[in-house]
Amino acid sequence: MPCPVLCGRSACWAGEGEGGPGALPQPWGPPSPVRPHPSLGHPIPSNGSLWSLPRSYIYQKRWVKLDADYLRYFDSEKDAYSKRFIPVSSISRVTSIGDQKFEVITNNRNFVFRAESDADRNEWIRTLQQIAEERKSKALERTLMSPTTSGAADPADKSGFLELRGFKHKLFVAVAGDKVFLYKNAEDYRLGIGITYIEMNVGNVKEVDRRGFDLTTPYRIFSFSADSDQEKEEWVEAMQQSIAEALSNSEVAERIWVVESNRFCADCGSPKPDWASINLCVVICKRCAGEHRGLGPGITKVRSLKMDRKVWTEELIEALCAAVTTSDLAETQALLFCGAAVTCATGDPQCPTPLALAEKSGQRLQMEFLLHNKNSETPRLEVGTSEEKPYSVPLPSVTHNGFLYKTPSMAKPVGERKGQEEFSRRWCTLQDGVLSYYENDRNAVPNGEIKVEEIVCLVNNPPNAHGIESTFEIYIESERLYLFGLESPDSAREWLKSIAKSFVHPRAEELLALDFERIGRLHYKGGLNLERAKEGWFALAGSTLHVCFEDSERQEPLQLRKLQELSIQGDNEVLVLVERRRTLYIQGERKLDFLGWVHAIQKAAGSAGDTLSEQQLTESDVPLLVDRCIDYITQCGLTSEGIYRKSGQNSKTTSLLEMLRRDARSVRLKEGEHQVDDVANTLKRFFRDLGDGLFTRQWGQDWLRATALEDEEAKISEYRRLLGTLPTVNRATLKALINHLFRVQRFSGENQMNTHNLAIVFGPTLFQTDGKDYKAGRVVEDLISHYVKIFNVNDQEMKKQQDEIMAIMKMREAASSGTQQAGDFICTVYLEEKKTEAEQHVKIPATMTAEELTFEILDRRKIVMKEKDYWSCFEVNEREEAERPLHYSEKVLPILHCLGTESYLVVKKQMSMENMLIYLASRVGDCKHGMMKFREERNLLGLGLSTGFHDRYFILNHTCLRLYKEVRSHKPEKEWPVRNLKVYLGMKKKLRPPTCWGFTVFYENEKHEKQQWYLCCDTQADLREWFATFLHVQVGSGHGTEHAVFQELGCGGMLG
């Protein structure tokens, strides 16, 4: 029997035989958190280092983790997936055997451990013995590895052999509950000792080929292969069900399991049943739920405790928890089973049914029980009051009345136009929280009622959507839709205002001031907490979705046309909206109103017309269509001869323009699939067909008249004035286009399109003329020639543009010499650290920024950012042993062409960001000064390195960094402009820095002369403060608050 050696600051342990061919090759992953055992008053000493003795009889150091369910060991503490795990439930006893050793005896094998001290050993023995005793006393609560052992959490939903890439032999795989377990063989599965398990709340399954499929997690991709097509489909279905269970809400189940008798299936006794018969008031396991379903809904109505969240009202939860002790319900149940009808007549005209009697008596549990035993589904909230709802507070009392046209209520969306003959005129009153409709204004008994607390959505339809001029829709919780109408738009607005005020939560009253098309409540996940769905209030007005989040006092607008992504996940159950710094998941708890929200949001997020402001936009207010075309031509067509002068194929141009106008967000222009001339022609046609034009009809003639000014400075001044008169989107679009044409003419030697030639093409296009007026071309030529002055382009922007142009020229030179294929800008970027399994090969367009690259990498690995996560793209210099986070707007391509062979890009978290934010928020003034240790590297005349580090006094401000010999010095020894500095965290160890908190600084002047030097701080806090100030003075101008600046340094956190 092997004897693992236990070591480390906390007790650490391993099991026998974890090495060999069955061990899982490890990628990087986050360490699991320490979890206290539920029955103990203190945390388990749950991790540490271990020397284990595998079958090779050579000790190997392992990192070991113990939680309430499993003992697992890993190659290192950074690994996400173990090499072996042992269920804690299999531990029978723990004994001391001397010399800091102790023996853990399980049902199958014995394990010997050695701690660093007797005290550690005794602590481990005490803790493990307590766990073993707890398990013995509650044997039925033990988690079992399989139906035949005491190790697994659930019986396997699917098990069998699969091939896994990286293993010579097939592995035995079991899907159980919300986890997938991997075993070396079927014997290990029977014993309960496995390789690792995968928590499916972070998993995603995708079919790869005929027999293969991938299980993707943020830490590793598991590539499986089954024996047949049918087997593969069964495995994929089982894993998808496991993901659904992992993502389900266990709040209801946990509350029901509080009662001890509810912790076991009423039929077979299995632990932790997660299904229930809602009319029999019993909890059952998944397998017994299948048997119940076979009996039919007339006998037993089966619901999931985890997934059917909307079924479980507060009353029903209380009923289930009290089922074994409440005699009244048992008596009611017995009467029903004896044949009593739920809808039988009582003979009392005031309370004609047992349900009405229960309501009058205030017996809420009885009412819930009777409702769920009706033959047909009944809206469970009809008998409720606003006080029962967790979201509800006293709503304002609103009164309104008048005649409305109404159609019969519907259970499906309004699919076609309703004619006037389909509406009936009804007298309607809104009073005391009830919207009632009567046959006429003389009737005392209403035909029907809608309680405002049941309203979940109110929709204002476009004029003449139906046979009545103004119509609106009301959606209620029981999946019913009511359509009302009026011939008077003013009267319809009054009704909308009154109904909205009556049901919208007071904290969302800001939304009532909007000219909304749709308003209501939905469940969502977002911000820093994705564990629990929250309820928010939403209002759609134009292309803006206004949201009042549960934990926010003010409404927040989402510009739908600026979304980076809009998609539907699951079975049309989750709408995903991705902004630049936030992802919002809107959940479809009710199908009817959710479908309406999805269609309305999709429509609002698309292009709505032919003017610039109605297009899908980038963050910088440039139409996405324009941005897509410019980006593609910059990447693939700058050197194309006759670019913009040659015409593409008319049919392809028309088709491409239609696709981009319909939804530019979903279109990806790819080299080989799209021709440069087709894309160029698409861009020109877009501007020519643009409603109101780029320069607008109001100001277009003023632009043309400005060409008559003879004085160049006066002309430039007039152009700048006219630029300020343009709408925001027109101004941003014009700058983006002229910036692009400025680049194009820089390659005129190859593409034959100088400034004059471009002006001839774009003048008539942008001014939408016939080409006979030379003034249009003159305006465009002036804008390109005086681009820097007219658009106020600073030196930093020009330098970035120069770098991009140089990078493109280098790439084209490499392509023409045959060393690289034209347009093939592909680089390797790493996630977290440089190793093979962390590689991502990314195609880099000329306009891709560091932020876009960061999003691309995180999206590929399906990484969800959590609280206080600040992800950035870093440039790492291995030779200098230093790294720097790229500013979010830095273009990646120029950086790639400046990287040496010992440098690379990596996307990872900014671990010090939170502390830097706190410092910037609390500091006074924009300067930073203090003592640092300084060392300069001299490369001139072969002088080599200067000797040692010396104390120097530094002052850093927005313009320069000054070095003084000492604090009292008046004249600086050296001075460097901040814009010419590149600051890297870290420095070479061979320099023997006096502290470990240093950074490396590179300086390059206008003559391209380079210097390099090193700075050391006394503390880590000093290093953070200096580095934060460097970044702020270099990129912080014009960004407002320091917090906003640092949110933009990298990808940033997933902010709510």
UniProtKB/TrEMBL annotation:
Pfam family for this entry, one: ArfGap
Domain Rho-GAP: 610-791
Keyword Cytoplasm: yes
Matches recorded under SMART domains: ArfGap, PH, RhoGAP
SUPFAM superfamilies named among the record's database cross-references: ArfGap/RecO-like zinc finger, GTPase activation domain, GAP, PH domain-like
Subcellular localization: Cytoplasm
GO cellular component, one term: plasma membrane
Biological process annotations from GO: regulation of cell shape; signal transduction
PANTHER family: ARF-GAP WITH RHO-GAP DOMAIN, ANK REPEAT AND PH DOMAIN-CONTAINING PROTEIN 1, RHO GTPASE ACTIVATING PROTEIN AT 15B, ISOFORM C
Protein name, UniProt field: ArfGAP with RhoGAP domain, ankyrin repeat and PH domain 1
Organism of provenance: Accipiter nisus
